[in-house]
Write a structure and sequence with these properties.
There is one protein chain. The chain is mainly beta. The chain folds into two domains: 21-392, Methylamine Dehydrogenase, Chain H (7 Propeller), CATH 2.130.10.30; 407-438. 15% of the residues lie in helices and 41% in strands. The protein has helices spanning 2-19, 388-403, 409-438; strands at residues 25-27, 31-35, 41-45, 60-65, 72-77, 81-86, 91-95, 110-115, 122-127, 131-136, 141-145, 160-165, 167-172, 175-180, 184-189, 193-198, 203-208, 221-227, 234-239, 243-248, 253-258, 263-264, 267-268, 271-277, 284-289, 293-298, 303-307, 322-327, 334-339, 343-348, 352-357, 372-381. The strands form nine sheets. A four-stranded antiparallel sheet has the order 1-2-3-4, with no helix packed on it. The chain has a four-stranded antiparallel sheet with strand order 5-6-7-8, with no helix packed on it. A hairpin with a 4-residue loop joins β26 (293-298) and β27. The radius of gyration is 25 Å and the shape is globular. The chain starts with a helix and ends with a helix.
Length: 439
């Protein structure tokens, strides 16, 4: 009887395990999120809108555990907001809320996690620029927030502070049909567009299309989800600011939209108006995108990177941008990857976390603000353990900072001001005595 109960329990829990999807490491515009194996969320870097969830607006160059998040199974970042999904399908959001991307009509930023009301049963979450995307367990997709580029996929361009259901547009026998987008198993979003992967391996896209990131040369945006044509059966999807990436069942990578290596601000000298397959590469098992670059793990658990590299986010030790994937030799036995605006994160089989790229807000999580052109070990691991060496170095650094504070520029400036002030007083006294002596 006990054996039968165990089997039934396994069958009940297994579907939940496989319906939840998403990255465990992700990064936004100057901040990063880590989901450890215990279900704890760690936040690093920029915090000007409360995206670290610690109740302050202070940046942090070292990982900080986000409190009051129960049993988290997936995380994602928006440009300036953060998202977490718990084991019961509830969504928590914090950070910037200028267009209702947190699911609250108050439009006020939130410095700590807030539970999304009136909607649950989500299996995946994604953060776009100023909008949020959620995949429910029934295969439907819901979006909320900014909608100027039709990011919400509901046929309008009206912003929404509450979730609206994504619709799809299909054509059969010259007849156009609008219906609910269903059978979705994965979602991907970063900037103004979103991809959805269905059970049958087809990819659907909506939102901004200024650089053909939706896989077809047509209007500037698509109000409804439409199928991306010209690709085989796909098993994984990822998107950057103006480009899209897909991984097929045979381990081949397909790309379309802007070539980030040639992207400069909002202009590009190279783009693909339909999906193309990258040739001459090993088979890949996982893909991820930053805003301006892409990452992939091959069948030997090695990491490849391509795209823009002006801040070292390709981890190649230089700032040379590349249109084709290049191997990062320092990374081995990698099981997960994630990208941000100008940052990359990789996790190996032992749970070590490597980070590289730009670091003005401390988003690399290495305790300082130095840029890294090659992978550097983060003091936090996926078990939620902070390195003792890092903690002791922080204490030593804090102690030495106090001892040496008299030599910093701010202190010297204050001394100089006081010196000038005292000198003026002494000078005035001397002049007063001379004048008095004359009279």
């Amino acid at each position: 009887m006990n054996a039968m109960r165990q089997i039934l329990l396994f069958l009940l829990l297994t579907p939940l395990k496989f319906t939840v999807s998403g990255q465990r490491v992700d990064a936004g515009n100057g901040h990063a999120l880590i989901l450890d194996k215990k279900g704890n969320v760690w936040a690093i870097g920029r915090n000007n809108f409360g995206q670290l969830g610690d109740g302050t607006l202070k940046n942090s160059p070292s990982p900080k555990k986000v409190k009051n998040l129960p049993g988290i199974v997936a995380i994602s970042r928006g440009y300036d907001h953060s998202i977490a999904l718990d084991k019961n399908g509830n969504v928590y959001l914090w950070g910037r809320n200028n267009y209702g991307q947190l699911g609250s009509s108050s439009l006020s930023d939130q410095k700590s996690p807030q539970k999304l009301l009136h909607h649950t049963n989500f299996s995946a979450v994604e953060g776009g620029y100023w909008h949020t995307v959620g995949l429910k367990k029934d295969g439907t997709v819901w979006c909320w927030g900014h909608n100027f580029f039709a990011e919400l996929g509901n046929g309008t361009k009206e912003h929404s502070a509450w979730p609206v259901e994504v619709l799809q547009r299909t054509t059969s026998n010259a007849k156009e049909t609008i219906s609910v987008l269903t059978d979705v198993v994965r979602i991907a979003s970063v900037g103004y567009h979103t991809l959805a992967l269905k059970k049958d391996g087809s990819v659907w896209a909506w939102g901004g299309n200024s650089y053909n990131e939706l896989g077809k040369k047509r209007e500037e945006f698509q109000r409804y989800a439409m199928q991306v044509e010209g690709i085989p059966k796909i098993k994984e999807i990822a998107v950057g600011w103006h480009h899209s990436v897909a991984l097929d069942d045979d381990g081949n990578i397909w790309v379309w939209g802007s070539d980030p290596a040639f992207q400069f601000k909002e202009e590009t000298k190279k783009s693909y108006d339909h999906p193309i397959c990258l040739k001459g590469l090993p088979k890949f098992t996982k893909i991820a995108c930053g805003s301006w670059h892409s990452l992939a793990i091959d069948e030997n658990n090695k990491v490849w990177a391509w795209g823009k590299n002006h801040f070292g986010m390709l981890g190649t030790g230089d700032t040379i941008s590349r249109s084709l994937p290049m191997l990062i030799p320092q990374l081995r036995n990698i099981v997960d990857i994630g990208g941000g605006c100008f940052q990359s994160i990789a996790v190996d089989a032992t749970g070590q976390i490597f980070t590289f790229g730009d670091n003005p807000s401390g988003q690399l999580g290495i305790g300082n603000y130095s840029r890294c052109y090659s992978p550097k070990l983060m003091p936090l691991d996926m078990n939620g353990v902070m390195s003792n060496d890092f903690r002791s170095s922080q204490k030593e650094s804090h102690s030495s900072l106090k001892k040496e504070s008299i030599f910093n520029g701010e202190f010297l400036l204050k001394v100089l001001k006081y010196f000038v002030f005292l000198s003026s007083i002494v000078l005035n006294i001397v002049l007063f005595r001379k004048l008095r002596h004359k009279h």
